[in-house]
Amino acid sequence: MSELSKAIGFQHEPSPVNWTKRDLLLYAVGIGAKKEDFPFVYELHKSFAPFPTYPVVLSLKGDSQDVTDFSKGFAGEPIPGLPKFDPNRVVHGSMSIEVLKPLPVESGPGWSLKKTIAGVHENKSGIICDVELLLVDPSGVPYTRMISSSFNLGAKSNPPQKFSKSTSSSPAAKPPPKGVNPNYIVTETTSEEQAILYRLSGDYNPTHIDPSIGKKMGFGGVILHGLATYGFAARAVLERLAGNDPNALKYFACRFTSPVKPGDTIETSIWEMGPGPDGTTEVSFVTKDLTSGKIVLGGGIAYVRTVAKSRL
Ligand SMILES: *[C@@H]1O[C@H](CO)[C@@H](O)[C@H](O)[C@H]1NC(C)=O
Ligand SMILES: *[C@@H]1O[C@H](CO)[C@@H](O)[C@H](O)[C@H]1NC(C)=O
């Protein structure tokens, strides 16, 4: 039996999180919300609500109101069965978010994120860790379940072996039908300042502001947060399928396949695939960076409660 299997089910101490209306407004502009994107940009709008993917920022924001110091890297606590990972060789592989209950516009005290190792996979190039993040209110009621997968390049177990085990199964995207045009194509140009805005939601990793780091890593400069691109794609899906109804997005997931640079133009192609669970529509999507020509978000899937077109 692999040492790695010991890690599965490991639970971190729950970490406190909190947010205010200002945090929600800041996140909305970080993911490119436009001035007419009510109800996400104006706290007095009658339907003001968190943009549904907001909780993806909370594992890095935590409960801090100020910037957090990234210069020390994320050491993290040791996890039984896992080798020590090099914080400089971690890439975000994929992210899913499942909305269980609508989020309040401010948390107040007592909320936390419960982190559990849900899966570990080893291949020749490294070790992938799937972490389940459950956002719970002060009485332990879950609001959001997220699975974040990180690829630890160069990491090896002892002895290295092919290994793959996961306790949670997130719905996987169906490949878009071959030769069928997407139902929607949304093209947007990110701002040159997109990363300096998005970081204010809690990811102060210097890769997103100091060009020398990205140059050393072979990206030729600053790269945009993968989760910012994720938010652009989620906006595209929510706006086109549900007229920006904050409660319409039930599930949203994709893989991060290539970086975007601030200022690049990105295009999200969305296919309606048929009925999803609980009266939703299942969509598949893919986001391409038209500046680099690369697919940046792959294997996209979402469950959305669609709004009848006549009501828009
Ligand atoms: C969030 O929690 C921190 C730590 O307890 C506290 O200092 C801060 O005031 C809280 N912020 C809000 C808006 O509740
Ligand atoms: C290992 O898994 C990662 C993440 O899924 C993938 O990008 C990489 O190509 C895989 N490497 C090999 C050698 O299979």
TrEMBL record:
An annotated Gene Ontology molecular function: (3S)-3-hydroxyacyl-CoA dehydrogenase (NAD+) activity
One Pfam family it belongs to: MaoC_dehydratas
Domain MaoC-like span(s) in chain numbering: 182-284
Source organism of the structure: Botryobasidium botryosum (strain FD-172 SS1)
Any one Gene Ontology BP term: fatty acid beta-oxidation
Residue stretches making up the Peroxisomal multifunctional enzyme type 2-like N-terminal domain: 19-142
Entry-linked Gene3D superfamilies: Hotdog Thioesterase
Protein name, UniProt field: Uncharacterized protein
Stored InterPro entries: HotDog_dom_sf, MaoC-like_dom, MFE-2_N
GO cellular component: peroxisome
Composition-biased stretches (Low complexity): 159-172
Region annotation Disordered: where it falls in the sequence: 155-182
